[in-house]
Write a structure and sequence with these properties.
- It contains 5 helices and no strands.
- The chain is an all-alpha fold.
- It has one domain.
- Helix 1 packs antiparallel against helix 5 and helix 3 packs antiparallel against helix 4.
- It starts with 12 loop residues before the first helix and ends in a 13-residue tail after the last helix.
- The relative contact order is 0.14.
Length: about 130
């Protein structure tokens, strides 16, 4: 027995490609994420409501990870400079932990979004900080 839905069909191929580009960012040094970001920006206005939520989620994921990575990188640089005097070691460690946390957060967030896409559901909270 087939299930009848009243939802119109929305193309999930392009959002899936953007998720794949985000997941491939580790070996490609973020070039794939930038390509995915451009695709998300280019297609979010023409997408249906379910896929638009995924594009918004992917765009938000990119910018939030960039801001936190920048904070972590600044802390690593400042901590590295001042670690010569031994006072920068805690700052260096904090920066490294932030960078590692952002890295893990990014991939977990993308995986959760991909699960919603596979289930053909909109992402429920695309602007939320967590998942």
């Amino acid at each position: 027995m087939t299930e009848v839905t009243d939802r119109p069909h929305e193309d999930r191929v392009l959002p899936a490609a953007v998720y794949a580009l985000y997941l491939l960012s580790l070996p490609s040094a973020w070039v794939a994420v930038l390509i995915g970001l451009v695709l998300a920006y280019a297609n979010r206005d023409t997408a249906g409501p379910r896929m638009a939520s995924h594009y918004q989620f992917l765009i938000q994921t990119f910018w939030k990870s960039i801001w936190w990575a920048a904070i972590g990188l600044v802390l690593v640089i400042v901590g590295g400079i001042f670690s010569v005097l031994l006072i920068g070691i805690p700052v260096l460690i904090a920066g490294g932990l932030i960078l590692a946390g952002v890295h893990i957060w990014f991939y977990v967030r993308v995986a959760v979004g991909l699960i919603y896409l596979v289930q053909d559901e909109p992402y429920p909270r695309p602007d939320a900080w967590l998942f």
